[in-house]
Amino acid sequence: MPLSIYNSYSRTKEVFESVIPGHVGMYVCGPTVSGESHLGHARPYITFDIVYRYLLHKKFKVRYVRNITDAGHFEEEGREAEDKVSKKAQLEKLEPMEMVQKYTNLFHWAMKQFNCIEPSIEPTATGHIVEQIGMIEDIISKGYAYEVNGSVYFDVKKYAASYDYGKLSGRVIDELLDASNREEVTRDLEGQHEKRDAADFALWKAAPPEHIMRWKSPWGEGFPGWHIECSAMATKYLGSQFDIHGGGMDLLFPHHESEIAQSTICNHVSPVKYWMHNNMITINGRKMGKSYNNVIKLTELFSGNHPLLSQAFHPMTVRFFILQSHYRSTLDFSNEALMASEKAFKRLWEAYEVLKKIDASDNSTPGDIELDTKINTWLDEMEVFMDDDLGSPRVIANMFEMAPIINSLKDGIIQPNALSHQTIESMKKQFKVFLEDIFGLTSTNNENTEILKPVMQLLLEIRKEAKIKKDFATSDKIRNQLTAMGIVIKDEKDGNSSWTVG
RNA sequence: GGUCCUUUGGCCGAGUGGCUCAGGCAAAGCUCUGCAAAAGCUUCUACAGCGGUUCGAAUCCGCUAGGGACCUCCA
Questions:
Q1: How much of chain A, in percent, has pLDDT values that exceed 70?
Q2: Among A278, A297, A320, where does a domain finish?
Q3: What does the alpha-carbon distance between residue A387 and residue A5 come to, in Å, rounded to a whole number?
Q4: Chain segment A377-387, per-residue pLDDT in tens
Q5: Can you give the distance from the CA of residue A365 to the C1' of nucleotide B46 in angstroms?
């Protein structure tokens, strides 16, 4: 079955065909490690983790590259015209690399919490200054960039004369070139006047004396521009044309548009076959972002330590929350929505645990042909939905259709022989493959339950004996005290009890 | 100002020309249960408004209104 994905470049769904059959090169814009990751950042990392996992499921050999931006991007038109990373470093009185290390570690911790598979290569911007300088020299030699006062700018006007600058982001080039008209307030900016055109973007910036992060270059000491790091690292590790480039929709312009321009000049080919962009997470209808001052950091989310949160949320709840919406739709955050996801995920996961313990019947023909057929349709649809531009919400909906059936099988409401041996085995397999392998979900139960097991068994035995003797005072005491400790007791139909933490 | 996207029931969210129907959460009733919890069953509310295309539109087109993203670092 072919995989189709929505290509932002063509604005249509396309059948996925990799450049090299059987292999996929994927580049995803990683974090800028000048601060803590927030919920909004989690979306691309989880989304493209699913893409990665699904490609592996489809038997592709994938090289997944996700960079760490540790050099900071120059805010060319920003008020301070200063490297973001080093600016923050001064405020925090840290060495730049100390801060970079701190937030890189924190980022890795968060990715682990989310059960995201590590990328094949995680290159850093500072580790690829040489490649970036090389690329800039190449662009200059081809006549598409010029140097002014130790800075180098990309000549957008010249590029646009022969190439389609603005195609990815839907920008109209004349407007960009006419950008000075747009600026009602002419901001007096360092570097602004030295560009030949307002639409030009920096490839290299000369470093002012106070700038901490600086590297030697053919144009003097400075630091790389906004977009060149991704182009340089993607080209180095994935070649001049690779399959998938991912990131948030807010990176379409100027970041990805500029990447296309830079790489096209250097490599004579548009760098990316499929551009994939995830939509934003909103909060009260507004994009979550630093500039709106409405972020919920991941550490706050996991601890519940935020005015908007009534409780802590498990990383798997957040992951499930993200999977319940399509990656190209905006997803509205609220405490209530997250609580709904928590409950839903718990129910689905418990059904999965139940399913694992169900013994498949020994009959090859189902007792209830209608039900058996329905289940097989749901199971088959799961891959079809994923193939259609990663329809994770519909896959989850199908699993919820099966949850009551699984529970009814356990309780004997549906007889085991209603379903064929094969159908039950297929359910087990598909639930495992989709929940664990593709969606990367794990149990939210605490790890250290090993030692509890015999203790709980003893308590439940005592409680069972009490119940038989109709000593409900004792049985309720056990149950209530355990509930208070966070252990939930469930009495099963067969007279036995099960327990879960949390 | 320009470009693009979006508007689904109490809430979150799929879907996209025709099938009874997304799904989840919440709510109500019932079953099970010593009681609870869990589970099962049932019920409930919907496609922003107006016009058009069509045998038929939540789905396509137009207009109106609301919301949003990008045009500056931003997932």
A1: 91
A2: A278
A3: 8
A4: 999 999 999 99
A5: 41
Q: Which bases along strand B come within 7 Å of a protein CB atom?
A: 1-5, 11-16, 22-26, 32-41, 67-75
Residue A222 clears pLDDT 80, i.e. is over it: yes
Return the HEC string of A338-390. Answer: HHHHHHHHHHHHHHHHHHHHCCCCCCCCCCCHHHHHHHHHHHHHHHHHHHECC
Residues lying close to strand B (Cβ under 7 A), chosen from 373-432 of chain A, are 388, 391, 393-394, 396-397, 400-401, 403-404, 407-408, 411, 413
State the nucleotide closest to A350 in CA–C1' terms: B38
Scanning A39-172, the segments in alpha helix (DSSP H) are 39-57, 84-92, 96-113, 129-141, 156-162
Q: Last residue of some domain: A409, A438, A467?
A: A438
Span A347-362, average pLDDT: 90
Domain assignment of residue A86, yes or no: yes
Nearest DNA or RNA nucleotide to A199 (CA to C1'): B71
ipTM: 0.94
pLDDT in the model for residue A81 = 37
Q: Which domain holds residue A303?
A: 286-438
Q: Which nucleotide is nearest to A35 (CA to C1')?
A: B74
Task: Check whether residue A353 has its CB closer than 7 Å to nucleic acid strand B.
Answer: no
Asked if residue A360 and residue A344 are part of one domain, the reply reads yes
**How many separate domains does chain A show?**
3
Closest CA to A283 of A106, A29, A38, A36: A38
In A 240-279, which Cβ lie closer than 7 Å to strand B? Answer: 247-255, 278-279
